[in-house]
Automatic annotation (TrEMBL):
Superkingdom of the organism of origin: Bacteria
Annotated protein name in UniProt: L-histidine N(Alpha)-methyltransferase
PANTHER family: ERGOTHIONEINE BIOSYNTHESIS PROTEIN 1
Keywords noted in UniProt: Methyltransferase, Transferase
């Protein structure tokens, strides 16, 4: 990287993050910036790819686990809070079954994406107009702050679906789960979607779909920098590359320049030089074993109640409880 100094005080959070990520000797961009309007569309396409098994696996679990979840709730009235609701389609499988079983609960989805939340509001209003519903737009912790700490009088079931926790390193993930615990009372439950360690070929295929949706999704980040920060990346000169390390369980995505690139980003007043094949690291999708999940429950202050899995054993929605101590 070469470039002139720029002050970061007036930059947007996206610009600041791009500046600090691309200034490192091993350049990186945070995958949380994948999800602009185009990125959301591309992610929907990934979720429909036959190779991307995660979505179907979790839908299967949600379809089959309502009674086990209600068993743990033991007839209490509860708030079902969903972190990162997206289009809420998987959760509707659960709502349908909870209502059929006579459960008493409110549904409170949280998401950054206001458009996705209004779609969820519309669907819920049409299908279950009597269901108590509150959509909260914001990041997880802003929204949890708004809901406040659990009083304990009304049980909480927090859903953290989609293996979103996998987009953080195990250390960061533990810190996030610990922080969620701060909003819960003894007896409250957290259901987190973890993608499991499995045949590396299955994992690599999920992040390397032949139709190229994953490549387009990752490369969209370069387009986004061009659109929003006045960059001149030439995405055709970059290649999506995926690796999976079966020992650590880390699947990682990189963007690689096929030849030397000089990229000027106007909003940052910087020119970055990338050598041919000098990787920009863009995403981690961490895979876990059941034992590692249990260790993480322990490290973040929960007891692991049970693992709900799909029939192939590809995915686990692991149910944790806040112990009464
Ligand atoms: C959102 N997240 C859990 C996805 C994953 O599997 O890591 C994002 C994704 N990246 C490439 N394909 C899907």
């Amino acid at each position: 990287m070469t470039g002139s100094a720029t002050t970061s005080t007036t930059l947007s959070p996206f610009a600041r993050d791009v500046l600090s990520g691309l200034s490192q000797s091993n350049p990186q961009l945070n995958s949380k910036w994948f999800y602009d309007e185009r990125g959301n569309v591309l992610f929907q396409q990934i979720m429909q790819c036959p190779e991307y098994y995660l979505t179907d696996a979790e839908a299967e679990i949600y379809r089959n686990s309502a009674s086990e979840l209600l068993e743990e709730i033991q007839g209490a009235t509860f708030d079902m809070i969903e972190l990162g609701a997206g289009d809420g389609s998987k959760t509707q499988l659960l709502i349908e079954r909870f209502l059929a079983a006579g459960a008493r609960f409110a549904y409170r989805p949280i998401d950054l994406n206001a458009a996705a939340l209004s779609e969820v509001r519309e669907i819920i209003g049409l299908r279950w107009p009597a269901l108590e519903f509150q959509a909260i737009q914001g990041d997880y912790f802003e929204a949890l702050d708004r809901l406040g700490r659990s009083s304990g009088s009304r049980r909480r079931l927090v859903l953290f679906p989609g293996a979103n926790i996998g987009n953080f390193s195990p250390g960061e993930a533990t810190a996030i789960l610990q922080r969620i615990r701060g909003f819960l009372a003894p007896g409250d439950l957290l259901l987190t979607g973890f993608d499991l360690k499995k045949d590396p070929a299955v994992i690599l295929a999920a992040y390397n779909d032949p139709a190229g949706h994953t490549a387009a999704f990752n490369l969209n980040l370069l387009h986004r920098i061009n659109r929003e920060l006045g960059g001149n990346f030439q995405p055709d000169n970059w290649r999506h590359w995926e690796t999976y390390d079966p020992a650590s369980g880390a699947a990682r995505s990189y963007l690689l320049p096929t030849k030397k690139q000089e990229v000027t980003i106007t909003a940052l007043e910087q020119t970055f030089t990338f050598r041919a094949w000098q990787a920009i690291s863009v995403e981690i999708s961490q895979k876990y074993s059941l034992r590692e999940i249990e260790g993480m429950a322990d490290a973040s202050g929960y007891e692991c109640v049970r693992h709900l899995q799909d029939r192939r054993g590809y995915f686990s929605d692991s149910l944790w409880r806040v112990p009464s101590r």
